[in-house]
Specification:
The complex is a heterodimer of chains A (about 290) and B (about 260). Chain A is of the alpha/beta class. Helices cover about 45% and strands about 15% of the residues of chain A. Chain B has 2 domains: about 160 residues, Rossmann fold (3-Layer(aba) Sandwich), CATH 3.40.50; about 90 residues, N-(1-d-carboxylethyl)-l-norvaline Dehydrogenase, domain 2 (Orthogonal Bundle). Classes of the chains: A alpha/beta (about 290), B alpha/beta (about 260).
Chain lengths: ~290, ~260
């Protein structure tokens, strides 16, 4: 059992992870170099907890208790007591490698160092450690306090013991872990590619319209959302970037090739719900 | 279904019940036979999967290889066997009254290509049918260049009588849903084959991570891996694109059944 769970980076993902962990009874040490971001994260978590209380999903007492388990920290060596640390900082390999080096210097040799990366190589990150066996991927899905799934990513040199402990930690904080080898896109981002890619091709080849494809997938296939609605929700820019990154990391594998339609929409600024227009128009937001 | 009355009026046969004649691959034939019988049609199934015995059908389904002259609507549900499909369509075209439409599964062969096999080209309309989806509300429908509006309307009313709506799409191999779904299954089998994850974890990940109603491996099992393979081979041949290349594991599954369970 992990008693002290360290989280580096208090952005959207970091605070979501902190929230989930605190609710499951683990003490969280939430670190960010930026004090303002840290305070904002705590505000966000408190706001969300209150929402839970108002909806009757959480008692006042549970909320106070959980919130009390989140300890903000602005010095990395304060995470020394943690048995498990996950980083959720910017998706930049150099930044993450640097962070891993510092964490290794500042923590116990038995501490597991995990990364929440969705697109970078866990193996490459671990390579800067003296003991790369202790590094692992722990990929949460947004919003991290709601989504049950986590991908436990086994780097080239990750030990079985590290994988086992990570699975345990995931279960401890009420998540459902699946194990993936360290390959681009892991499981979800990779297997989901054709859902968007084929839909875009069908549209490009004029087999059916955006509305038709969504309707067929939902009412003919039983999906909750159609591919175009979903791209609008995720953000066409994000979806395009993930596809492009997969395509490059797989050295031009044609199954992951992006589509011109995506690029054109990004060029036009029609990137989905957040911009008021994507494949559909959103009147309420602009 | 409320819409049954209007449609049965339109497609009423002399016997009082409209006759639907169904031929093709199992288990699609069973799914559609039971669905049509359930909605009040007199169903005749031409069971050509012998020596496999015909399954027990519910209610008014009759098994016979004689095409009823009073057939209101015929369904040709063969998924991939082109020669078989051709033979069935030619027989139906000769036996049916000129006004009776044939709804043909056009997932692996475009309806337009199928129309070249028969003289009653006007009566042919492609539909997208894969096992396990017959309870869904939408059916993809692909008219050919020969299909008049009236025939599409008959198909629409027929599908409405089954509680369904049609979505008219271009007549292309793979259509919409089969192309997306089969590529999901294909990608999932690549992941399993490369030891990136176990089949169970792939299914769990997709259901929890993307809210899919079923995992792609589960889907492959429900549709039938051999049918997934047929759809992808047809698309691969049609578009000549490397992205439709089939994973060796999927090929293995198609030929031998649930092979990965024995690993």
């Amino acid at each position: 059992m992990v008693k002290h769970f360290g989280i580096v980076g208090a952005g959207t993902m970091g605070s979501g992870i902190a929230q989930a962990a605190a609710l499951s009874g683990v003490d969280v040490l939430l670190y960010d170099v930026n004090d303002t971001i840290l305070r904002q994260a705590l505000e966000r978590i408190k706001y969300d907890f209150r929402k839970g209380v108002n909806r009757g999903k959480l008692t006042q007492e549970q909320m106070t208790e959980a919130f009390g388990r989140i300890h903000p920290r602005t010095k990395l060596h304060d995470l020394k007591q943690c048995e498990f640390i996950v980083e959720a900082v910017i998706e930049d390999l150099t930044v993450k490698k640097d962070l891993f080096r510092h964490l290794e210097a500042d923590t116990k040799p038995t501490t597991i160092l995990a990364t929440n990366t969705s697109s970078l190589s866990v193996t490459a990150m671990a390579s800067v450690l003296r003991v790369p066996e202790r590094a692992v991927g722990l990929h949460f899905f947004n919003p991290a306090h709601i989504m049950k799934l986590v991908e436990v990513v086994r780097g080239e040199r990750t030990s079985q013991e590290t994988v086992d402990h990570t699975i345990e930690l995931a279960k401890q904080i009420d998540k459902t872990p699946v194990v993936a080898k360290d390959t681009p896109g892991f499981i979800v981002n990779r297997v989901a590619r054709p859902f968007y890619g084929e839909a875009l091709r069908l549209l490009g080849e004029n087999v059916a319209t955006v509305e038709q494809i969504d309707r067929i997938v939902k009412e003919g296939g039983g999906f909750a959302m159609g591919p175009f609605e979903l791209m609008d929700l995720i953000g066409i820019d994000i979806n395009f970037a993930v596809t492009q990154s997969m395509y490059e990391q797989y050295f031009g594998e044609p199954r992951y090739r992006p589509h011109l339609i995506q690029k054109r929409m990004v060029d036009a600024g029609h990137i989905g719900r957040k911009s008021g227009q994507g494949f559909y128009k959103y009147e309420d937001k602009k | 279904m409320a819409k049954k009355t209007s449609s049965t009026t339109h497609t009423k046969g002399t016997s009082g019940h409209s006759v639907v004649y169904i031929v093709g691959d199992s288990p699609l034939v069973e799914e559609y036979a039971n669905l049509c019988a359930d909605k009040g049609y007199s169903v005749v199934v031409d069971w050509n999967e012998s020596p496999k015995p015909a399954p027990k059908f519910e209610g008014t389904v009759k098994v016979s290889s004689t095409t009823a002259r009073n057939t209101a609507v015929a369904l040709e549900l063969t998924i991939a066997d082109k020669e078989h499909k051709k033979k069935n369509l030619v027989t139906l075209d000769k036996a049916l009254a000129a006004t009776a439409p044939i709804l043909t599964n056009s997932v692996t062969v475009a309806a337009t290509e199928q129309a070249t096999w028969i003289s009653g080209k006007h009566r042919l309309v492609g539909i997208g049918a894969l096992p396990s989806f017959s309870q869904q509300r939408i059916v993809e429908t692909a008219p050919t260049v020969h299909t008049p509006k009236e025939t599409v309307e008959v198909v629409q009313r027929f599908m409405q009588s089954l509680g369904k709506e049609i979505e008219v799409v271009q007549d292309r191999v793979g259509m919409v849903l089969p192309r997306i779904l089969c590529q999901l299954v294909n990608e999932a089998t690549f992941v399993v084959q490369e030891d990136v994850a176990t089949p169970q974890d792939v299914d769990t990940a997709m259901k929890l991570g993307t809210n899919y109603p079923l995992g792609p491996i589960e889907w492959g099992g429900k549709i039938g891996f051999k049918h997934v393979y047929s759809v992808l081979s047809a698309i691969e041949n049609d578009l000549s694109e490397d992205r439709y290349r089939i994973s060796p594991l999927l090929k293995m599954l198609a030929h031998t059944g649930e092979w990965w369970k024995k690993q």
